[in-house]
Amino acid sequence: MGKAIFDWRRKLIFIEGVDIVDFSSMFHIKDYKYWLRKQLTLKIILIVSISLIILTAYYIVDGFSTTVSEFSTTTTQTSSQSGTEEDSTEQNNDEGSSEISHTQYENMIYKGGTLPLPFPEDYAILTSPFNPNRKHPISKVIRPHKGADIVGKRGTQILAVADGKVTVSSFDKGGYGNWVEIEHNINGKVIRTRYGHMRDTPLVKVGDIVIAGTVIGIQGQTGGATGEHLHFEVRIDGEAVNPLSYLIGKDTIETYKQW
């Protein structure tokens, strides 16, 4: 065989008596294919990365715009609602100044007594009446039940039954739970009503002047309660009296039926 001459710059092999052989095709074809694959992979990764960045930026901007829009809408609605409630309160105060005990509102429902239901809807079930000798459902001890347990629809609002001033707005862990007491002057007589087991912190505070129909809380199960209901009391001269005689005009009613 003839003498071989290598041209490294041109990557060719010259052999005397033999055709020119491409040195790169013999020794570097695998490296070249690997380089092509590497470049293609890098380009794909770059394209995917840019696409993900663009999509992420789009969703962030879109979500931010939606949040701002919802916040603006909520703020507008809240402001509008607050204005409406203030106007309604001013109007009710004007209407209630002439007659305290029988201020009439669309959401006040009378069932035959001098006081309306403490609920805005015509729905109430007596689950436990006023009873000086009741066995407590939790402690199983004989203990006076100084009010009436009544149940409205789940999560219903609790209303003040007459105009008055809030004297208690508190939490009693083992008894009333979240509760409110309101002092009323009805026909020259001082009467206090109590509302127990509210779901959340009462919506009124001590010293607030309320009118019949004012929402003071939400029916709940806080304190010593086995289920969601309202514990409603009427007190005269500090002594608890049967509230049914004020709500329905009589002392007894069949339990566990709507009235």
CATH architecture of the largest domain: Distorted Sandwich
Taking all Cα atoms into account, the compactness measure Rg is 40 Å
Number of E-type strands: 13
* Number of domain units: 2
Percent helix, as a range, is: 25-40%
Short recap of the structure:
The protein has 3 helices and 13 strands, in the order E-E-E-H-H-E-E-E-E-E-E-E-E-E-E-H.
Describe this structure in words.
With 259 residues, the chain is an alpha+beta fold. The chain folds into two domains: 1-98; 125-247, Distorted Sandwich (Glucose Permease (Domain IIA)). The chain has three helices and 13 strands. Strands 4, 5, 7, 8, 9, 10, 12 and 13 form an eight-stranded antiparallel beta sheet that branches. The longest helix is centred in the N-terminal third of the chain and has 68 residues, at 29-96.
Secondary-structure map with pairings?
Layout: E1 4-7, E2 12-15, E3 18-22, H1 23-27, H2 29-96, E4 125-128, E5 148-151, E6 157-159, E7 164-172, E8 177-186, E9 189-198, E10 209-210, E11 215-218, E12 230-236, E13 239-241, H3 244-247
